Every structure is written in C-alpha cells, then in structure tokens.
Amino acid sequence: MITNISIPLMADVHSRGEKPEVLLWVGCSASYDTRSQKIIRSLCKVLNIANVSFAILGDEENCCGDPARRAGNEFVFQMLALQNIQLFNQYQIDKILTICPHGFNTLKNEYPELGGNFKVQHHTQFLLELIEHGRLKLNPKKSSSLTIHDSCYLGRVNGIYDVPRKIMEALKIEVVELERNKKNGFCCGAGGSQMFKEEEKGLERVNTNRAREAALTGCKTLATNCPFCTTMLMDGLKDLDKEDNMEVRDIVEILLDHI
Amino acid sequence: MMSQIIFILTALIVIALSVRYYGRIVQNIRLGREIRLKGDVTWRLKQVLLIGFAQKKMFKNLLPAVFHLFIYIAFLITVTELIEIFTDGIFGYHRFFASYLGWFYTFIISSIEFLSVLAFVATLVFLSRRNVIKIGRFWNPDLKGWPFRDANLILLGEIILILSIFTMNGADLVLQGRMPEHYHPAGPFLISRFFESFFNHFGTNTLVILERTGWWGHILVVFGFLLYLPFSKHLHIIFSFVNLYFTPKNQRGEMENMPLITNEVKSMLGLSDPEVIQNAPEQIPDFGANDVTGLTWKNILDAYTCTECGRCTAACPPNITGKLLSPRKIVMSVRDRAEEAGNYVRKQKKQSKVKTDIPQTAVNDGKSLFDYISKEEIFACTTCNACVEACPVHINPLDVILQMRRYEVLTNASGPSDWITMFTNLENNGSVWQIPAARSAWIQQD
Q1: Does B409 contact A41 at a Cβ distance shorter than 8 Å?
Q2: At A240, is the secondary structure helix, strand, or coil?
Q3: CB neighbours (10 Å) of residue B4?
Q4: Which residue of B has its CA nearest to A210?
Q5: Of the four listed, A255, B23, B156, B168, which is most buried by Cβ atoms within 10 Å?
Q6: What tens digit of pLDDT does each residue of B119-152 get?
Q7: Is A10-128's fold the same as A139-257's?
Q8: With contact defined as beta carbons under 8 Å apart, do A229 and A219 qualify?
Q9: What angle do CA B369, B370, B376 make, to 5 degrees?
C-alpha cells in the first residue's frame, strides 16, 4: 500500500519536457469540499498503484463552467471554458480524466463547440479500462452487496450505466438495484446548479426522497460516481437519521478497498 | 345526388377551414427563431420510424403502451377506409371497392373491425384511467379545466366513431339480403356479422337510415377531428411524426452555444480575430428567451406536439418533491403563449393591411412567457433530463427552461441571490465557492 501519494502538477511536468498519460481534471468539489477531497485522493492513490502518469492543473484550473451555464450565465461559462481550453492547448493536452460527471459532460460535449476537442473520460470509465487491461490487481473480498445511484450526467445524459456495474462485477460485489434506476434514475437534487442555492418551496427535498429510496434497499453501502451526489445523498441520509445505517461512497473508494 | 352535393360541400368547407387553422399553427411556429438542426435525413427518418411508427419510447410503460397501440393502429388502418368514403361520397357509389377487391375487401374491412374493437376497449380503459382510477398525472393541477375536458372529448369522439362503423356495417349486412340491387354483396365482416340478428329486428327503412347515419357519423367525426385538432392536445396524432423528424441530433448534455457571447468573451480575453470584432452587431440583442420569439421554432413545434400525457412531470424530481415546476406545464404554456402571440400579430397585420410575413421581432402586446411561467418554476429545475428521457415523442421541456434562465440572468441581470454570489465567485476566483485557500491546497493535506 502506498502511503505517500504522488500528485504532480502539470506546470512541473511540462517544464521537465514530459507529457503525462492523462490530465486529471479535479473540479471545484474535489478541490474544496472535504468529503470530495477524500474521493480525489483515493483516485490519485489508485492511479499511483496502476502506474498511470498523470498531472493536475492545480491553481491554474478553473471551474469547468457547468454551474454557470446551467444557471443561465453563458457569459461566465464561456469565460471559464475558453480559459480552460486555452490552458489545455498550451499544455498540448489530448486526454482528460474527470472525477465529476458534470466536468466530464461539459468538457466532452460542450467544449468542442468552443474549439476544445479532447478525449475525455469519467474516472469510472478509466478505472474499468485499467481493470480490463490488467493494470490493477484486484483482491475481491468475500461476498458483499451494495446499491448504485446513477448520477444524471453520467447516466441519463451520457448513457453510461454499465461501467459502474462492470466494476462491481470485477470486484465480485453484488449490485442491488434501486427502484428507480438507470434511465429512470432519480436525481440527487444537485444538478442544474441547485447545489449552490436553496431549494424552492416544496414538500421535501429532492435528496431526502432519493436517500429514502436508497435506505429502503437495506444495503450498507450506496455507491456513487459524482462528488455532488455523494454530498447530497449523505445529507439526505442524515435528514432521515439513517447516516449510521448506510455509507455513501464513490466507486473509486470502493475499488481502493479491493486492491 | 343531393347527398353527393352535401358531401362535396362539407368536404370543401372542412378543407378550407383546415388550411386556415393549420396555416395559423405554422405561422405561430414560425414566430420562433431559426435554429441549426444537427443530424442528417437518415437519422431523422430513423427517429420517425423507430420512435414514431414503432413507438419505441412508449413501451417503457407496457400497459398504456399496448392500449395506445390499439388506438394507433386502428387509426392508421381506418385512414385507408377514408379513400372509399371519399369515392362513394363524391361519386354516389356504395362500397365502390367491394366488387373490385373481392376477398381482399372483406379482409381489409374485417381488419378495421377487429382493430376497432381493440380501440374500443382501449378507449374505455383510457376513460377509466382518467376518470375512475384517477392516475396521478391526469389529476395534476396542470390539467385543470379545458385540458381535462379536451382529453375526455377525444375519447368520446373515438367511441362515436367506432359505434358508427359497426352501425354502418351491421345495417349494411342485413340490407344486402333485403335490397341486393343497391346493397351489393360485401362481407360478412369479422365482427359486424354478429350484429346481423340484432339489426334484423329493424324495418328496411330504419336500416337504410341507420346505415346512412353510421356512414355520415363516421365521416363527420373524422372531419370534426380534423378541425378540432388545431385547438386540441390531440394534434399529436399528426405532429408527433413531424416533431420527431425535426429533432436535433444533439448530445443531451450539450446546451446550445451563444456565438455572440463567444465573440464578446474572446475579444475580452484577447483571443478573437479582428474580423469577428468588425462584424459585431451594433445593438446588443436580448439573450435567452422571455417570449416565444426568443425560443426556437422547434420549441414551439414541441409545444404543439405535446399531448399532455404528463410522463415528463411524473418523472420530474422537483415536481415529485412538491415544487411548483412541472415540465408539462412549461410545454403547455409555450403553446398557449404562441397562440396568443400569433393571434395578436395576425390582428395587427389585418389592421395595418400589410401583406408581409409575420415578422420575427418581439410581439409587442405587453405580455411575455413570464406571464405564463414563473421564475420559481424555471429556477427549480435540476437539469436532470428525466423529462427529456420520459417524453415518447422527443419533446424537450428543459430547453425552454434553460433559455428562460438565460434571459433572467443575462438580460435581466437577475436570478436567485445565491447564484449571483456564485457568479461573482466564478468571475473572481474561477471557483463556485468563495474560499481563501488555493485550489491546489488539498494536495498537501493528508
């Protein structure tokens, strides 16, 4: 087990005249939110273990722009996006790995229109490739089960449902599907920039509704693939006093337990 | 001879009114701005065939899908019957194709009868789903008043249509035995043969009247539907296919780009070509949409396509958790406003006697989409795309919401206060949160 994680900065790697295999896009959540920082650190650990050469932009990174664009502020979105694209081009980056499905979607589907064409992968896609190419030695534990929450921006928006499930299959973990799953999956309540404002008046919060559904499975673990979903669902479980019954964990954290 | 004249006159009036009503809808749709639709003809036809004719997205919910299929196939096949109704109506024949087609005629009419029975059952099921079982999405406040009555009226019309078919065929069968010189042999048909003994109780004169009542009832309901559709949600029986053909082949997560803003930002960042700056418009237009003229014509076509089934609203997380937002209501509001705006423009045009096309400038009747859709609704959306996924005919309520957000935020410089703070943070620190620590500080912690 690696104790010291190596997280190189793109500027340093570039100045040595090297080019990493992938650029790791950290995003706002993993940069600043303490819970999400654990997720990004887990991912970095896994990348270290698999000997993947990567780098992050560090302080040069800006928000991907998704919250601004979906809140209607195209001006701020384009300012962020164009600066990020400029930076990517400056470092001659061609492959980007994101930890957040929102960054994944924006970089993959929205930057091309602004002249930024890169191969973008969500971390679960990249992890599955590492597993399939034998770059990660897995150590499946004895039978366990969990349930999966599909984030809207990886699932419904980009049609990726099988990747998280294939990883679970590789870890020999049984997946108990939620009642509303895959295409019919239910939002955690964070998307469309809702994460950054109070919810409108209603009967309950969106995350509480989803957390209740997850708790009903009786599983001990709820697997996520989006840092915002993780936060929202943890809060939802807390509202229901179920935070001791169910753990919300990103798929990379679960994977790290099995290496 | 008299009935031929009446038929031809009725048909001509229906055609003339249709041109007028459907023409208005086309005008209303053209109030929307132009949009570059991605996707080629092959892809579009695939949508029409797979999502339209094969109803792929309907079958996510099996029970209603099957009953809907009954009515849908019955509708498609019944359309072929109209060829004969028109031939007989105009030229005064009786069952013109029967003697030419022989057994095939019996087969076609029997199929229509078979499907009519299925459609009848489906109509009863649908009526009970709305009025007896009271399925949630049909009792949502969106449908209060006219939309709810509209739905029941259509189902009632379908029942009259089906009863007309069986009255016509049943009476005809008996009349074939009694007056073979006029009612030449056709059939017996699959279902109406069982009504023979029932219709045998009637006198010949009554049967002649019943047969004609069935025939006229049938065609009048069809004509009635044609003229009713422009004012009804049921327009979807035509517009679904049109709408599917014009669906842009965008990635779901891809919002429409705003090139004017790209130019502006590029020049701010010192990235733009001098040519672009020169071509910049002198007057800054409104960003986003506060009226149907700011939406794309596809958004308005979407609205006319909507049959108010409510699958979108039933899947919408804010709606499920009691928020005001309902994607179906957003789409219905776009249609209502397009009607109002279109009528206003036509009135203006009539008064000024200008013979030009409807201009795509703002409709200056002092009203806007925001009179129909509140800010509370548009700001509650999580952009989760559940509504987009749920719609069986590729309507996109989310696209309208996002364009209205753009108007509120960019043109009105307004929005939820938390978002204003977020925008400031993004502009100043490139991060959604105002946090003094460096973005890379997390690397050091363990």
Answers
A1: no
A2: coil
A3: 14
A4: B317
A5: A255
A6: 999 999 999 999 999 999 999 999 999 999 999 9
A7: yes
A8: no
A9: 135
Q: Does the structural domain A10-128 have CATH classification 3.40.50.1860?
A: yes
- One digit per residue, the tens of pLDDT, for chain A of length 259 reads 456 899 999 999 999 999 999 999 999 999 999 999 999 999 999 999 999 999 999 999 999 999 999 999 999 999 999 999 999 999 999 999 999 999 999 999 999 999 999 999 999 999 999 999 999 999 888 778 999 999 999 999 999 999 999 999 999 999 999 999 999 999 999 999 999 999 999 999 999 999 999 999 999 999 999 999 999 999 999 999 999 999 999 999 999 999 8
What are the residues facing A146 on neighbouring strands? A175
Task: Compute the nearest-CA separation of A136 from chain B (Å).
Answer: 23
Cα separation, B25 vs B342, in Å, equals 8
According to CATH, what is the number of the domain A139-257? 3.40.50
Q: For residue A154, what are its two tokens?
A: 């990886």
Instruction: Report the alpha-carbon distance of residue B397 to residue A15 in Å, rounded.
Output: 48
ipTM above 0.85, yes or no: yes
**Residues of A (83-122) whose Cβ lies below 8 Å from B:** 83, 86, 105-106, 108-110, 113-114
Burial of B178-191, coded b for 16+ CB within 10 Å and e otherwise, reads eeeeebeebbbbbb
Residue with token string 């203006």:
B348
- Set of chain B residues whose Cβ sits within 8 Å of the Cβ of A5: 446
Q: How many CB atoms lie within 10 A of CB A63?
A: 28
Q: Where are the domains of chain A?
A: 10-128, 139-257
CB-based contact, A58 to chain B, within 8 Å: yes
- How would DSSP label each residue in B237-263? HHHHHHHHHT-----TT-PPP-HHHHH
Whether B258 and A196 lie within 8 Å, measured CB to CB: no
A152 contacts B384? CB cut-off 8 A: yes
Which residue in A31, A191, A200 is closest to B376 by CB distance?
A200
Which residues of chain B have a CB within 8 Å of the CB of A157? 251-253, 385
Asked if B432's CB is within 8 angstroms of A156's CB, the reply is no
**Interface check B273 vs A, CB under 8 A:** no
Nearest to B254 among A26, A82, A109 (CB): A109
**pLDDT, tens only, B90-104:** 998 888 888 888 889
Say if CB A214 and CB A149 are below 8 A apart.
Answer: yes
Residues whose CB falls within 8 Å of the CB of residue B74, separated by 6 or more in sequence, listed in order = B112, B115, B116, B118, B119
Closest chain A C-alpha to B249 CA, distance in angstroms: 13
A7 touches chain B (CB under 8 A): yes
Dihedral angle over CA of B49, B334, B422, B252, nearest 10: 0
User: Is residue A95 a contact partner of residue A22, using CB atoms and an 8 Å limit?
Assistant: yes
Element (H, E) at B205: helix B204-228
Question: How far B271 CA sits from the closest chain A CA (Å)?
Answer: 9
Give contacts of B 390-419 with A, CB under 8 A: 402, 404-410, 415-416, 418-419
- Nearest by CB to A72, from B264, B402, B445: name it: B402
